[in-house]
Design goal:
By secondary structure, the protein is α+β, with helices and mostly antiparallel strands. Helices cover about 40% and strands about 15% of the residues. A 4-stranded antiparallel sheet has the order 1-2-4-3, with helices on both faces. Helix 2 packs antiparallel against helix 6 (about 105-125). The structure holds flavin mononucleotide (FMN). Flavin mononucleotide (FMN) binds near residues 68, 130, 131 and 167.
Amino acid sequence: MDFQEIVAGRRSIRKYQEQDVPVQLLDQVLEAVRWTPSGGNIQPWEVIVVKEPRTKQALQETLGGYNPARKAIIQAPVLLILCAKVKIPDEYRKEKDVSTKFGDWWYMFHLGSAAQNLALAAHAVGLATVMVGFFDHDKARELLEVPAAYEVLLLMPLGYAAAAPKAPPRRETSEFTHSERFVSTISTAKQA
Ligand SMILES: Cc1cc2nc3c(=O)[nH]c(=O)nc-3n(C[C@H](O)[C@H](O)[C@H](O)COP(=O)(O)O)c2cc1C
């Protein structure tokens, strides 16, 4: 698969086969998280690998009944939990100025990048996943005994896809690309 195929061909998968995830492939997926870029190279991610059916069941209960990924939480042989360190260590704060108006740790951004690396790596090795962000984060945190300095941000079922859904539509590049200033899009710039 070339890069464009990996990026555009990755889908959110909510139905999985029973087949287990080989350890080597799981390692490759985690390796992709390892190489995620982060501001100041802070690497604020932690990943919990959940396989126990009872834990998956308890985590499923943290999702709302409307969430289309409910079944996937249990069905996928592996459930990856992406956590973020949300408090900047004092020694780090002294060393580097990492403050911006968006909060001084940017952990949502960094975890988003890690999740995308994970999803693309999974797809590249023939596995599938879905980013599940809508659940009771505090309940999940308590259940997984995550320390106070961290938050549970995403649940990512991992396994072999049992369905091949169509890609949800995307905006054209011309709809979000602007030329020189925000107000003029590429398409209007071309017309001018
Ligand atoms: C931050 C984030 C949170 C998401 N949360 C959920 C979720 O709770 N349940 C779910 O079924 N899908 C969830 N998704 C998957 C999106 O619905 C999906 O990425 C989007 O519809 C595009 O489809 P595609 O991933 O197949 O291209 C989430 C995606 C992101 C990036």
